[in-house]
Amino acid sequence: MSQVQSLERSFEMENKLEPERKVQLAQELGLQPRQVAIWFQNRRARFKNKQLERDFDSLRANFDRLKADYNSLLHRTKP
Q1: SS3 3
Q2: Which SMART domains does the entry link to (predicted)?
Q3: CA distance linking residue 14 with residue 36, whole number of Å
Q4: Are 25 and 16 in contact (CB under 8 A)?
Q5: Which one, of 5, 2, 40, 4, lies nearest residue 21 by Cα?
Q6: How many beta carbons lie within 10 A of that of residue 48, not counting itself?
Q7: Measured in whole angstroms, how far is the alpha carbon of residue 18 from the centre of its chain?
Q8: Which candidate, 5, 7, 3, places its Cα nearest to that of 15?
C-alpha cells in the first residue's frame, strides 16, 4: 500500500491526529512527523473546500427550483 493510501485510510478514521499517532504513522511510512502533520492539514483544507462546493451546489439547486416554482405561480395568477 502506498504512503498516500495509508494516509487517506488514516484520514477516513480520524481527520485530526494525536501527537502519538502522528509519530507512529510517520515511522510506519518513513516520513517525518511534520510531513504527516502538513499532509493532514492540507487534506482537511481540501475536504472543507469540497464540502463547501457540495453545499453550494445543493443550495443552488434548491434556489433554482424555488425560482421556477415562483415564476410558475406568477404566470398562473396573471389575468
Answers
A1: helix
A2: HOX
A3: 13
A4: no
A5: 40
A6: 11
A7: 20
A8: 7
Compute CA 69 distance to the chain's CA centroid, rounded to the nearest angstrom.
Answer: 31
pLDDT range class, residue 79, cuts 50, 70, 90: low
What CA–CA distance (Å, rounded) separates 25 from 10? 9
Nearest to 34 by CA among 25, 47, 10: 25
Model confidence pLDDT, tens digit, residues 26-64:
999 999 999 999 999 999 999 999 999 999 999 999 999
- Tell me the C-alpha distance between 57 and 45, whole Å: 18
Q: Looking up cell 443550495, which residue turns up?
A: 59
The per-residue pLDDT for 46 is 96
2-17 pLDDT per residue, tens: 999 999 999 999 989 9
